[in-house]
Structure formats: structure tokens, C-alpha cells
Amino acid sequence: xxxxxxxxxxxxxxxxxxxxxxxxxxxxxxxxxxxxxxxxxxxxxxxxxxxxxxxxxxxxxxxxxxxxxxxxxxxxxxxxxxxxxxxxxxxxxxxxxxxxxxxxxxxxxxxxxxxxxxxxxxxxxxxxxxxxxxxxxxxxxxxxxxxxxxxxxxxxxxxxxxxxxxxxxxxxxxxxxxxxxxxxxxxxxxxxxxxxxxxxxxxxxxxxxxxxxxxxxxxxxxxxxxxxxxxxxxxxxxxxxxxxxxxxxxxxxxxxxxxxxxxxxxxxxxxxxxxxxxxxxxxxxxxxxxxxxxxxxxxxxxxxx
Length: 305
What we know:
Blueprint: H1 4-19, E1 23-27, H2 32-45, E2 49-55, H3 63-70, E3 78-81, H4 83-90, H5 96-118, E4 120-124, H6 129-136, E5 156-158, H7 166-175, H8 180-183, H9 203-219, E6 227-240, E7 243-256, E8 264-265, H10 270-283, E9 287-292
Parallel strand pairs: 1-2, 1-4, 2-3, 4-5, 7-9
Antiparallel strand pairs: 6-7, 7-8
């Protein structure tokens, strides 16, 4: 386990040395990784840093308002409403790797736009060790590693938590005094709900995934999962009332893990699963059926795309 006080001091010194007298932007998603990176960078260089949160339309329910409230102490925080631009980019894209690259390029475009406005030469990211391993091993591209375009308009990219595992990042978050809603929150993929939608990403599918994931997170909180969410798989026949419907199939996934490199599907009580399916199908008339994913990692990845 990382020695937090020593790590924090060294990370701040590294950030100051890397950025110098220049300005930087930090990609802030609200997850623990980017939140720790942002806090370290903000404490290291202060007003030289501009935190940027991009609302892609693929975020958790209520995420944007939560970010604005949690990080209101960062006066330079910018919230970018980019939903339409990201859905336009993703139109017709069905390949999982292409999705990740499209989203990575979209993020960089947004960050470069802000960087030009504030004259920033550096980009700070919350990349952690498993991100790098999975991208380098061709398991999947992460939007902030393998999903980046080959050429970016930054003098350098600074990744202060690049050698930490998720549980170590949480330790640093607690040492930094970040709120529990940040330090203990479940992992959320950088590409957002796009990797919880099999096939083309649309606003309709994103809305279904967002609401269903909200239900899953609420209902499975007592199980203390490493990660729990809902994914939209496709369509199937169902019955609602006296009518035949062709609605969305939603998969519920809940896993236990230490670092995300391997994971085991959780054994969930049948009554809990029934309550989840009842809420998801009852609260969204477009959902026809709900299934539970019992696959471990490996052979499956935690996310779907």
C-alpha cells in the first residue's frame, strides 16, 4: 500500500516541476482518479490550473450538478455542455474500440479549446496503473491512454497517479480530505455510458442506461460492490399490460474486486434481483426485460464495450 503523505508530497513536487510557470488544464470527471489528480494539481499550482468537466451526455444521473457542488472551491472550474457534439461524433459507430477512440478524440478537442482560451500548455489526467496495463495489453483502449489521438496540442501530459491501483488512489483521496462521495464512489468508465451500450450510442439508449444504472446503484448499495451498473444490450419481445412490445434488454452487473484487474460476479439475493427488475421495467416503459450477468473477469471484462 502506498505511503499517502509521502506520495502526496512527491506528486505535488512532480506536478510543479512538470508544469513550471505554465498553465494547465485538468480533465475532471468526478471519479476518484481524476478528483485526486485534480486536487493534487490544484494544491500544487493553484491558479495555474483550470479544471474542466465535460458533460458528454454519457454521465451518471445528476453527475454534473454534483461536480459543481463538490468542486465549487475551485473557482476556475469550467463545465462544458458537449452532449450534442459527442452524440454526433458517435452516430453510426458500433465497434467498441472505435467508440473509445472517438470519445478520446472528443475529450481532447474540448480540452484543447479550453487550453487555447486560458493559454495552457499542459494537460493533467487521472490515468491509473490498470488503465495503462489494459491499453498496453490491447485488452481495451482507455479514452485517456490508448484512446488518445496520436497528435495532441499540448506540450506535455501529466499523470500524477499513473502508478497507483484504485484502492491506493482511494487511500490518497481520504488523506487529501476529499468527501466520501468521491473517495468511496464506484468506478465509472471514462467513456461513460457509451461502454454500457452494445452497438450504436444514442440519446435514447443513454437515457435507459443512466436511469437503470441509478436503480442498480441504489438497490445494491448494501452489497458494497466494487462496481455495479446496468447495460443496454439490444431489443427483445416483451409484454406490458395487454400489449406486445419490442423493448430494450438491460443487463445488471455487480462485481467484487480489489483493483479491477480481475473480478468476481456477486451472488445477489433473488428477491433483490426481482426488486431491481421490477423497478427498471416499471420506471421505463421502453425496457422489456432485465437479465443478471454472472460472468467473472476473466473471461469477461467488467464493462461491456
